[in-house]
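Notebook B, p. 112. Complex prediction, attempt 2.
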Amino acid sequence: MSATFWVWFGIIVYIAAGLGIALMARRQLGAGVSEFFLANRKLGGFISALTYSATTYSAFMMIGLAGLTYLTGVGALGFELTYLCGMFMMVFFLPRFWLVGKKYGYISPMELLSDRYQNRGVGATAAILALVFLIPYGAVQLMGVGYLMNGVSGGAVPVVAGIIIAVLCAIAWSSIAGLRSVAWTDAFQALLMITVSAAVLGVVINALGGFGAFFDKLESAVPGLLTVPTAGGSWNLNMFIGLALPWLFFLISNPQVSQRLFIPKSVTAMKQMLGGFLIFGFIYTLISVLWGFGATLLVPGLENADLATPNLLALPIIPTGLAIVVMIGITAAAISTIDSILLTLSSVWARDIHKGLINRKVSEKGELRVGQWVIPIMAVIAFLFALWVAEKPGLDYMIAPLSSAASAGLLMAVPTIFGAFFWKRGTAFGAMVSMIAGAIIVLIFQLTGWKPLGWWPGVWGFVVCVPLFVIVSLATRPPKEKAEEFLGYLKGALKKGRFI
Amino acid sequence: MTKTAWAWVWFGLLLALDIAIPWYVLTSVEKVSAAFLFWTIWVLAAIASAFIIFLKWRGVKS
């Protein structure tokens, strides 16, 4: 039977397994908004770690990061590990989000901001930021699946077909039982993606003569890719900071991951979530980067670096069955991210925009219905964006830069989030002005490609929004009573739990 | 300084090394044992320090 048959067979088995898991999760689904969007804050450490991993790591890693390594070398490792180093900040933010989430019953990170700053406009502004900037990030996942299925099937599965399959799965996984189906399918998909990618990396390294020979070949064939900046000009400091700065704060700026800080059922589950994720992230990052380096040796000269992984998988040294399983693993990585994005955006729309601004008296049932309707609408928007971007060539439209560009916009909420937890003097006006001004700058610079002084859009936005938050806050009146109560509660609770 | 302040200082130091070593110390060393190895060890230090902190957490009633 042909490779195309096995590709379709693999896709069907994957969809059936995912649907089965999602339907099993539905059996545990209770009623209410907290249940649908947060699994009632009752997830164990193992599932929490895997859903956090699967949501964070996506098609970006095995396609985007591998492609970026293929094209630009070791700087890609530094860029991605800077994100992982940024996870150190979880020791500050994880207990804080978790404690106030439980105490005040927040559904979304934006609701936390609205309450802390005593102004629904703050949450709504952060919500709009998420809606605008997470669409490109979601689209990136879809592109990844499209490229991959097309490459592994030798062109038999069109890019658009791959994108449509990813959209439909993401809608199903997130709609069937909310976070329960997303988390369970995420856990299955996280295990799948790390296991199969490690297996193929083993085959590639083996084909190159083992790790020692692999590294020797890298040093002799592409020595310029082992340093920063490269001879070709990649990874100058501006590029590194431009890409890494939004990534550094990903853990709090991206609501689909910060919302997960509400879900562990206990402190033990929280510790398992963080520890499990750090180990997973370290291994998966090294696999992705080594994979990219392997592609530079085995499939050199590709015009589109995002095709490095599909081309690597199409090599005769990779057994067809294994290549198809890996394709499914990467597809799983992409879908596990986009379904989480869809679910988070739907909660943000329902809670922070619909209930926060449009209809404050909406019932919990009505709010849930609105959220469920938003899931397919967001999916279609991401689908259209993916179709548009897939036609564009060049570095700006590669998966990795596009992912980081999306996070550059979300970065503008970071001063507001820091202020919520660490600065009593922060105000709603400071928050809103800084987010809006920063986001406008990022959008303008992103769309025009303008980089004054060589600084990337996220850096410019951040340079503007941080002082704006401070200055406008100092010039306006803070919600003193709420700040005292919120931070006072945290101070006591943090001490009790030996958090820092 | 409080433990929280020390943790922020340590994190700041890690970020300073993230730039200083690859771009100013190892910039012309085209070896796997240069930037590649540095970043691998550097992030392991960050992960280990996170473990040291969060393993001390204990259960609380909110």
